[in-house]
Amino acid sequence: MVEAYCVKCKKKQEMTNAKEVSMNGKGGVKRRAMKGQCPKCGTTMFRIMGAKK
């Protein structure tokens, strides 16, 4: 699973229902990111990932 910071709980949590999305970056490149929900409060969480290796 992926950890991300929850702004409502103010700490890192494991994401639930995490799925990979792509977003537009500088120079027209696509950036990988993960989007999911906080298991405690249900707030949407978002984390930008590094390049694939």
Give a structural overview.
This protein is an all-beta fold and 53 residues long. It is 0% helix and 57% strand. It is built from no helices and 5 strands. The protein has strands spanning 3-6, 11-14, 16-24, 30-37, 44-48. The strands form 2 sheets. It has a 3-stranded antiparallel β-sheet, with no helix packed on it. A hairpin with a 5-residue loop joins strand 3 (16-24) and strand 4. The mean pLDDT is 92.
General shape: elongated
Low-confidence stretches: none
User: Over all CA atoms, what is the radius of gyration?
Assistant: 12 Å
Say how many strands there are: 5
Helical content, roughly?
under 10%
Strand content: over 45%
Number of contiguous helices: 0
| End-to-end Cα distance | 18 Å
Question: What is the residue-mean pLDDT, rounded to a whole number?
Answer: 92
- Please provide the ordered H/E string of secondary-structure elements: EEEEE
Widest sheet: strand ordering: 3-4-5
- SSE class: mainly beta
- Largest sheet composition: 3 strands, antiparallel
Characteristic terms for this protein:
single chain; 53 residues; mainly beta; three-stranded antiparallel sheet; 57% strand; elongated
In short:
With 53 residues, the protein is mostly beta strands. It has no helices and 5 strands.
Strands, helices and their partners?
Elements (H helix, E strand, L loop, with lengths): L2 E4 L4 E4 L1 E9 L5 E8 L6 E5 L5
Antiparallel strand pairs: 1-2, 3-4, 4-5
